[in-house]
Amino acid sequence: MGEETTEFASRFSSAVTFLREVAAQGARARAPGRGDDLAAAVRTALDAVAAVYATDTGAVRDWPEQRRRAIAQLAAVRAALDAHGVGEELRREVGTLVLIIDPGTPDGGSGGSRRPAR
Question: Is the pLDDT of residue 49 over 60?
Answer without folding.
Answer: yes
